[in-house]
Amino acid sequence: MTSLANHLSDLLGAAFTALDLPAPLGQVQASGRPDLAPFQCNGALAAAKIAKRAPREIAQAIADAIKEHPSITQVSIAGPGFLNLEPSQAAYTAQAAALAGDERCGASQTPTPQKVIIDFGGPNVAKPMHVGHLRSSVIGDALQRLARFAGHKVTSDIHLGDWGLQMGHLITELEDEQPDLPYFDAAATGPWPTEPPVTLDDLARLYPQAATNAKADEGRMLRSRKATAALQAGRAGYLALLHHFIAVSRAGLEKDFDALGVHFDLWKGESDVHHLIPAMIEGFTARHVAEKSDGALVIHIARDDDKKKQPPLILLSSEGSALYGTTDLATILDRKNTIGPDHTLYVVDQRQGQHFEQVFRAADKAGLAPQTSLEHIGFGTVNGTDGKPFKTREGGVMRLSDLLAMAKTAARARMAEAGIGEGMDEAALGDIARKVGLAAIKFADLRNQRMTNYVFDLERFTAFEGKTGPYLLYAAVRIKSVLRKAEAQGLTPGTITPKSAEEKALILALDGFDAACIGALSKRAPHILCEHVFELAQAFSRFYAACPILPEKDEAMRASRLALAALTLRQLECALGLLGLEAPERM
RNA sequence: GGUCCCGUAGCUCAACUGGAUAGAGCAGCCGCCUUCUAAGCGGCAGGUUGCAGGUUCGAUUCCUGCCGGGAUCGCCA
Predict the structure, then answer these.
(1) Which of A70, A212, A298, A348 qualifies as a cystine partner to A121, CB 3.0-4.6 A?
(2) Is the pLDDT of residue A388 over 70?
(3) Nucleotides on strand B lying under 7 Å from protein C-beta
(4) Where do you find CATH 1.10.730.10 in chain A?
(5) A52: exposed, middle or buried (C-beta count within 10 Å: 0-12, 13-18, 19+)?
C-alpha cells in the first residue's frame, strides 16, 4: 500500500512534470503548520530557481492542476509559495481502510533485499556487562529487527572480545594469585580440570587489577603481552584457561542478554577466527599489502588526500601477537567465505571510529570487502549527570542486571500504588513489572539521537510519565482493555469513517509508520521510530479522551472507532516490537 | 598542538538534510475521573538556537573566525 503522503507526492509530481519540472519537487510531507493543513509541499520554491519564474506563480499552476482531484478537498498557497493540502474525507476513509487491511500496518518492504551482518562489537570476556553495554545492545537490536522487518536477510553476531591482550592480563593475574594451578606449566599438555578455576566475579576483579598493575609497571605489561602471544601460539594450558574464561563469561552474558530481550544469531568471538590468521597474513605479505615497520607487521592505509594522519593498522605486534584489527580483518574474511554479506554494520562506541576507519581501509586494500560495504554505527558515550563517565555513588560501574532490577522494582511499586493487578499472582505481577521496567530503560536509550553523548540519569530511566516507554505500553494496554470489553459485549469493528479532528489526526499518525521505518533504518536511527511511536500513542490518547468508544450510542460510529482502536493497537505493537518492547495485557 | 564531534526552554532531548510562528517530555502554575485504566487529557508560562560575520527570497541546518565542552592521535579494546 501507499501512504497518503506518497500518494499526494505522486499527484504533485505529475503536476510538476506537466510543467517540465522534475517530479521529485512534488514531494509532500507532514506540515510544519498543522493548524493550516495536514500536508505541505515546498517544491514550488525550489522550482522557482530552476524555471526562473516566481514561486507563487508556479505554486498556483500546481494548485490549479490538482485542486479537482478526489483525494484533495482544499489546496491553498501561503507565504512565498508553500502549498498547503487538505485531504478529502474520501481520502481519509480510503487510507484507513487500506491500513486496516494491510498485514504490515502500512510499512513497506524493501525492493532490494540484501544480506546484512550486524556486529555488536560484543562485550569483552574479561568484563561484566555494565550500563555502557546498553547502547550497542539496544541500538543494534532495534536495527536488526528493523532490517528483518524491511525484508533484509540479517545475521547478527555478538562478537565477543576474547582474543587480545585482555586474555594475557587474565592469565598472568590468575597466575599471580594461584600459581599452583596446572595451566601455568609450559610443558603440560592436559588433561585439564573440568571445573573452571574462576567465577564471574573473579573475572570482573582480575582484569581491572591486571590492567592497573600493567599500566604502572612496564615489566608487568610485558608479561601480559608475552602470555597473549603464547596463547595465540597455541600453548595448551593457556588455551584451556581461555575456554574456561569464555564459558564462565558467556553463561553470565546469556543471562544478561536474555533479560534484556536481545538475541543473536551467532555467538562468535575473536578467537573463532584465530585459525585463519596465519594464512591471511601470509597472503597479505606475499601480495605486499602488509609490510614490516618498527618490528611490527602493518598495513599502511594512509591516503594522499587525508586531512588527518592515519596510522597504519598493526597486524602483528613486535611480540608476534594478533591485535584487535587483525581479528577484525580475519572475521571479515571468514564472513566473506561463509555468509557473503552485501553489507556489514558495526554497532560500536564512537570512540573506536578511527579503529574502524583503519580496518575498513585495510579490508578494501586487501580485497576482503569494498570499504563502502562496511559501516561503523557509532554512538555517544554513557555519562553521569555531571557529564563524566557514569559511576555509581560508590564510584564503581553499575551492572546492567542491577539496573534492570531497579527498574522492575520501581514499576512494581507504581503498580501497587495504583492498585493494578489485585488478585493476580506474584509471577504475573512480576512479568508486568519486568516489561514496564524494560520498556522504560530501552526507550530512554533509544529515543536519543545515536551520536550524541548520553546522560545516564537513573530517575529518568525509571520514570513512567511523559515521553517514556511505559507511556507507549499504557496506550496499548488501554486499547487491549477496550477490545476485551467490546468482545465480551459482542461488539464488532466496522468501517472506519473518521468524523472528528482527533480521529483524522490518528489516521494521519498511523499513516506515518512507513516513513518512520524507512527513515530509522536508512539513517540507522531508531530514535526516528521512537518519535513516531510516541506521536502515535499521543494521537491515540487524545482520541481516547475525546471520542467515547464503547459508550457511543451510534452503532456505525462505535464500530468505526472500535476498528480504529484495533488498527492502532496492531501498529503500536508492531512498532514496539521493532524497538524491542513488549506490551503487557494490563498495567 | 593536529583531526573529528557537540553547544537549542531551568533540566533531558527533537526539528524529516535550506522553509512558514524552532517543537516534545520533565520540573512550575491552572483545569478535567459515578463514560471505556488519571502511568492519562486540556490549558498557561518558558528561546537573540554559545558569540561574530558571510552565502540568499529564507539559516538551528551550509561557509569562515572566535568562546566553551568532549573524543581521538602506532604496537589496549
Answers:
(1) A348
(2) no
(3) 2-6, 12-17, 19-21, 24-27, 35-42, 57-58, 69-77
(4) 400-579
(5) exposed
pLDDT in tens, A160-180: 989 888 899 999 999 999 999
Give the rounded percent of residues in chain A with a pLDDT score beyond 90: 74
Q: Are strands A153-157 and A115-119 parallel, antiparallel or unpaired?
A: parallel
Provide the grid cell at A165. 591482550
Cell numbers for A48, please give them: 522557482
Cell triple for residue A530? Answer: 521512537
Burial class from Cβ neighbours inside 10 Å (0-12, 13-18, 19+) for residue A393 reads exposed
Q: How far is the CA of A451 from the C1' of B1 (A)?
A: 26
Q: What is the ipTM of this complex?
A: 0.95
Fold of A400-579: Isoleucyl-tRNA Synthetase; Domain 1 (1.10.730)
Contact between residue A200 and residue A400 where contact means Cβ atoms under 8 Å apart: no
**Protein CA at A512 to nucleotide C1' at B51, angstroms:** 39
> Is any atom of nucleic acid chain B found less than 7 Å from the CB of residue A351?
yes
Range A4-87 has CATH code 2.20.28.120: no
What angle separates helix A555-579 from helix A89-100, to the nearest 10 degrees?
60
Q: How far is the CA of A442 from the C1' of B66 (A)?
A: 40
Strand B and A144 CB separated by under 7 Å: no
* Closest residue (CA to C1') to nucleotide B57 in the complex: A80
Top-tier CATH class for A121-160+266-382: alpha beta
Q: How far is the CA of A394 from the C1' of B16 (A)?
A: 43
**Cα separations (Å) of A541 from A443, A503, A560?**
19, 11, 17
Q: Where in chain A is the domain with CATH 3.30.1360.70?
A: 4-87
* Cβ of A531 near strand B (distance < 7 A): yes
- In SS3 terms, A122-174 reads as CCECCCCCECCHHHHHHHHHHHHHHHHHHCCEEEEECCEECCCHHHHHHHHHH
Q: Residues 159-218, chain A: which have Cβ under 7 A from strand B?
A: 161, 163-166
Task: Please say if the pLDDT value at position A239 is more than 70.
Answer: yes
